[in-house]
């Protein structure tokens, strides 16, 4: 736990109870976002990355529950121990979120401006005129004409909605912004715009960001550090350039390899064989073992723990951590 | 968002429906075996000359096309619409009877519609808020129970409890039979209210259930939407989320329900007025039908169709104004 | 992921539909708590209806005691205004009420589904005409018209059924139409059409199974409407006095002055029966919708 970290997640466990049993969506995850850093949290669908993001704001709803762990914010408060009212006041001011699918994040029968204003008025009391000005400024910051604050979400284009949602997330100048697949539902051109916007905002406001996505390419461009998740656990953490140049975990290697086929003409498309395990019945030993080409006998019996083979890097793999 | 084009379209549809209804009202009695007067005559066993005279008086000896033209002229093109004279209440005109009865029914239906909507929506919200609790289970089961209960039975039970056992409220008539009032005095209003309490209670109790259940379902569905999660993430208070976000979205389909229920409430008012001998359109219609009073039947149906179609139109338009997603 | 060939898609969805077997469905309803209660209650009423002749102590139409009796051992519900046993009336009334309810519901389903499917499937002019007709029926006040028709046609059980069916199918038709419209545009319907299936076949074997749960749920609710509608018509004196339903019993209660003669059992028993069967059916209906929904989503 360093004072340079804005949030420290320690041994987080989140489970969902379904008909077939307890689904361990997040199974002992520890990670760190440093101040002013953009951390990418990547992995395939169902690996638990969105759940981790939600857990940071204690937005896990039944039948899910945070079972264990601590989430230390700015070296001080444990978010998981806050009372209801403390939590309510903490939310959005310190940590805010851009959810997956901006259209659904916005209430269709309220104007966009009023929803941004709501984020502010839930924490501060501002008069009508002042509020209007603040909302206008926020919208302009993300490149939306302030006059559009009176419009409804369905009157915005997909890209504009995403910008509006970003503006809303920045309304109270949070210290940490969690972005969950902010570009997934958009077309390529708009994706580019949104990414550029986010990078710009981050630089200007010196935000810390947790960028949750399955798009490794996007992360390669602007994140400082990347954590790879697999089946509810962290597989590898590394500074971006190092991760892409020399991935240590076989899963990361596989992921990167499957990307190459697109970039290199003539090369066959390849994907990691097999599928992730059922999180309600995780097999003994390393959970990536069934798909790993390097698996050996220790991998069958013992689940690898995250350890640091080198400064700034962590891997959970027996191959690496002798 | 409402446009003139939408308004015109809906009004046109409503008018079309109304015109069809008017034609329908003309045709049906004449489709039935025997002419309207024949039915009447055979029930009361009037001698033939009297029947012939009645036919002439009521214009039933003319060919059907002429009758139809006369009908349309008298009913749609004159004001007040002329439905002729009532058989049973001769020589009162149908219109005068309708004019007396309609306000009472509108009073009953108006007040109970509002109460029903408020009660139903409130209970729906409460059961969504307190989901899983005993209160919610109680509200849900009572609502389901009330859905299956006939209006008139509610009326009878209420009469039994409040009228007969407790003797708190009167259960017959709109005002005390022996009272004489001049205009809209306070005592008239109070007496009318006093007499209206049980009928209004009946209509409200009999109707709120579907609002409650639909509102609850809508609230549940709305509460699982993503924007609710966003609101919570923003730090908005739970009460504000319930009312400003959830309820506002959940209430919109309830308005559609309101539109659909107008016809239902009219039926309810018939049953209620019958039990309470309340002199509204419902009772008038019932007596007209069972007494085979054709002009009155036509007039009553006309007024009912008009009211239903008009309120449907109004509710439709209101709904469009309230929901910004709909644009025509 | 490879694109699925049309025939593969059709077969998959067809196969998926066979998982919705009637037996599996019925078992699910039984497992559902409310559904179970509903089924038990309906079974209870059905048995009463069947066993009425043996269960009732007297002939419901004969004068067997003094009028306006309060409940006693011999007359568990008392007697009516002309001395007939009320318990027997209520027991026999079960038959009529249930019979009418079910027949009307079946008619409503048949007519409503046919009209709704045809309108949605063929679209265009047929849709326009059918829907105008349906809407007109829905807009006109139902009960008044039913009263009128019943008066015209005379008091008999079959007239009641006819009248209730005529005014019951529009809402079913509307619902079926909107469901069909949303299913009609799904890929597997196009696939079936492309592979040469006839219209009837598409409607019956492909569209129908997909909308079946909602039809059943709605159909069940229409049983309640039918029972309530019949009760209302009978209450107003338009039912068959020689085939007394619960509504008719209450009609006699009203005109024979049960309210003035402390006839509380007279009023409570038939009314509670109507409410009870309605509640039971509502429970089954809500069980069906609960079960059907997650299944539909997983298709």
Give a structural overview:
The complex is a heterotrimer of chains A (322), B (328) and C (299). Chain A is an alpha/beta fold and 322 residues long. Chain A folds into two domains: 5-94 and 174-315, P-loop containing nucleotide triphosphate hydrolases (Rossmann fold), CATH 3.40.50.300; 104-173, no CATH class. Chain A is built from eleven helices and twelve strands. Chain A has helices spanning 49-56, 84-90, 102-105, 112-121, 128-141, 158-169, 188-205, 216-222, 240-245, 250-263, 297-301, and strands at residues 5-18, 21-34, 38-42, 64-73, 77-78, 95-98, 176-180, 208-213, 225-230, 233-239, 307-310, 313-315. In chain A, strands 6-7-8-3-9-10-12-11 form an eight-stranded mixed beta sheet, with helices on both faces. In chain A, strands 2-1-4-5 form a four-stranded antiparallel beta sheet. Chain A is globular. The mean pLDDT of chain A is 87. With 328 residues, chain B is mainly α. Chain B has a domain at 94-322: Orthogonal Bundle (MetI-like fold). In chain B, 76% of the residues lie in helices and 0% in strands. The model of chain B has no long low-confidence stretch (mean pLDDT 79). Chain C is 77% helix and 0% strand. Chain C is elongated and about 75 Å long. Chain B binds chain C through residues 17, 20-21, 24, 28, 32, 144-145, 147-153, 156-157, 159-160, 163-164, 171, 260, 263-264, 266-267, 270-271, 274-275, 285-286, 289-290, 292, 297, 300-301, 304-305, 308-309, 312, and chain C through 135-136, 138-145, 147-148, 151-152, 224, 228, 231-232, 235-237, 247, 250, 253-254, 258-260, 262, 264, 267-268, 270-271, 274-279, 281-283, 286.
The dominant shape of chain A is globular
Outline the low-pLDDT stretches of chain C.
1-19, 295-299
Question: Largest sheet of chain A, if any?
Answer: 8 strands, mixed
Q: Which structural class best describes the helix and strand composition of chain C? A: mainly alpha
Distance between the termini of chain C: 18 Å
Tell how many strands the DSSP assignment of chain A holds. Answer: 12
Cα radius of gyration of chain C in angstroms: 23 Å
Gross morphology of chain C: elongated
């Amino acid at each position: 736990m360093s004072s340079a970290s804005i949030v420290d997640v320690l041994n987080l466990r989140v489970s969902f109870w379904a008909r077939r049993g307890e689904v361990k969506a997040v199974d002992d995850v520890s990670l760190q976002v440093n101040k002013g850093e953009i951390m990418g949290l990547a992995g395939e669908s169902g690996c638990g990355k969105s759940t981790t993001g939600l857990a940071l704001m204690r937005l896990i709803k039944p039948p899910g529950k945070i079972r264990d762990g601590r989430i230390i914010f700015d070296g001080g408060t444990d978010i998981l121990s806050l009372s209801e009212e403390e939590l309510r006041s903490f939310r959005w001011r310190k940590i805010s979120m851009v959810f997956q699918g901006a259209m659904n994040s916005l209430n269709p029968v309220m104007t966009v401006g009023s929803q941004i204003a709501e984020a502010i008025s839930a924490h501060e009391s501002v008069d009508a005129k002042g509020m209007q000005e603040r909302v206008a400024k926020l919208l302009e910051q993300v490149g939306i004409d302030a006059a559009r604050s009176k419009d409804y979400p369905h009157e915005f284009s997909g890209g504009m909605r995403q910008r509006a949602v970003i503006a809303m997330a920045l309304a109270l100048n949070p210290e940490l912004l969690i972005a969950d697949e902010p570009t997934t539902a958009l077309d390529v051109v708009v994706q580019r715009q949104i990414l550029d916007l986010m990078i710009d905002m981050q630089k200007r406001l010196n935000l810390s960001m947790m960028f949750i996505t399955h798009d490794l390419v996007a992360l390669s461009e602007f994140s400082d550090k990347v954590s790879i998740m697999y089946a509810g656990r962290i597989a590898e953490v590394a500074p971006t350039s190092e991760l892409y140049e020399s991935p240590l975990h076989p899963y990361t290697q596989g992921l990167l390899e499957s990307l190459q086929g697109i970039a290199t003409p003539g090369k066959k498309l390849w994907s990691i064989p097999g599928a992730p395990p059922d999180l309600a019945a995780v097999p003994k030993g390393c959970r990536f073992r069934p798909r790993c080409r390097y698996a050996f006998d220790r991998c069958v019996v013992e689940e690898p723990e995250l350890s640091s083979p080198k400064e700034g890097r962590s891997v959970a793999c027996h191959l690496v951590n002798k | 968002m409402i446009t003139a084009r939408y308004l015109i379209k809906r009004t046109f549809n409503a008018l079309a429906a109304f015109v069809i209804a008017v034609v329908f009202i003309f045709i049906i009695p004449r489709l039935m075996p025997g002419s309207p007067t024949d039915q009447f005559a055979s029930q009361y066993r009037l001698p033939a000359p009297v029947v012939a005279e009645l036919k002439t008086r009521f214009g039933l000896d003319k060919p059907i096309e002429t009758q139809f033209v006369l009908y349309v002229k008298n009913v749609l093109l004159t004001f007040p619409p002329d439905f002729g004279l009532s058989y049973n209440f001769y020589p009162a005109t149908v219109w005068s009877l309708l004019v007396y009865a309609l306000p009472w029914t509108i009073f009953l239906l108006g007040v109970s519609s509002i109460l029903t909507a408020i009660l139903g929506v409130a209970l729906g919200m409460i059961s969504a808020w307190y989901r899983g609790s005993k209160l919610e289970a109680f509200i849900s089961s009572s609502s389901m129970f009330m859905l299956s209960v006939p209006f008139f039975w509610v009326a009878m039970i209420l009469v039994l409890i409040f009228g007969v056992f407790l003797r708190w409220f009167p259960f017959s008539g709109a005002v005390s039979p022996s009272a004489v009032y001049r205009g809209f005095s306070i005592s008239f209003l109070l007496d009318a209210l006093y007499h209206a309490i049980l009928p209004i209670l009946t209509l409200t109790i009999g109707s709120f259930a579907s609002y409650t259940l639909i509102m609850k379902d809508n609230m549940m569905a709305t509460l699982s939407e993503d924007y609710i999660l966003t609101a919570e993430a923003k730090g908005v208070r739970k009460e504000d989320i319930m009312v400003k976000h959830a309820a506002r979205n959940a209430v919109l389909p309830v308005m559609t329900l309101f539109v659909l229920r107008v016809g239902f409430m009219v039926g309810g008012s018939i049953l209620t007025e019958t039990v309470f001998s309340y002199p509204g359109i419902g009772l008038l219609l019932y007596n007209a039908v069972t007494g085979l009073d054709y002009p009155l039947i036509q007039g009553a149906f006309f007024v009912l169709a008009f009211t239903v179609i008009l309120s449907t139109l109004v509710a439709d338009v209101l709904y469009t104004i309230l929901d910004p997603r709909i644009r025509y | 992921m490879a694109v699925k060939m049309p025939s593969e898609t059709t077969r998959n969805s067809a196969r998926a539909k066979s998982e919705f077997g009637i037996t599996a469905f019925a078992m699910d309803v039984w497992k559902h708590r409310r559904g179970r209660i509903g089924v038990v209650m309906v079974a209870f009423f059905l048995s009463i209806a069947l066993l009425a002749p043996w269960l009732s102590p007297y002939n419901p139409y004969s004068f067997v005691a003094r009028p306006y009796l309060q409940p006693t051992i011999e007359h568990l519900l008392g007697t009516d205004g002309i001395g007939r046993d009320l318990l027997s009336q209520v027991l026999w009334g079960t038959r009529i009420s249930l019979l009418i309810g079910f027949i009307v519901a079946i008619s409503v389903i048949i007519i409503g589904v046919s009209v709704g499917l045809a309108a949605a499937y063929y679209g265009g002019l047929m849709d326009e005409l059918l829907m105008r007709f349906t809407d007109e029926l829905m807009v006109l006040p139902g009960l008044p018209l039913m009263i009128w028709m019943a008066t015209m046609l005379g008091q008999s059980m079959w007239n009641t059924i006819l009248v209730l069916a005529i005014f019951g199918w529009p809402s079913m038709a509307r619902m079926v139409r909107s469901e069909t419209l949303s299913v009609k545009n799904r890929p597997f319907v196009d696939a079936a059409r492309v592979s040469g299936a006839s219209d009837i076949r598409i409607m019956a074997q492909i569209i129908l199974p997909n909308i079946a749960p909602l039809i059943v749920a709605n159909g069940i609710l229409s049983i309640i409407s039918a029972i309530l509608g019949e009760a209302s018509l009978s209450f107003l004196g338009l039912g068959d006095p020689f085939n007394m339903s619960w509504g008719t019993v209450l009609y006699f209660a009203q005109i024979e002055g049960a309210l003035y003669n402390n006839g509380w059992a007279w009023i409570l028993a038939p009314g509670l029966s109507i409410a009870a069967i309605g509640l039971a059916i509502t429970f089954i209906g809500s069980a069906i919708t609960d079960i059907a929904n997650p299944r539909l989503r997983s298709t």
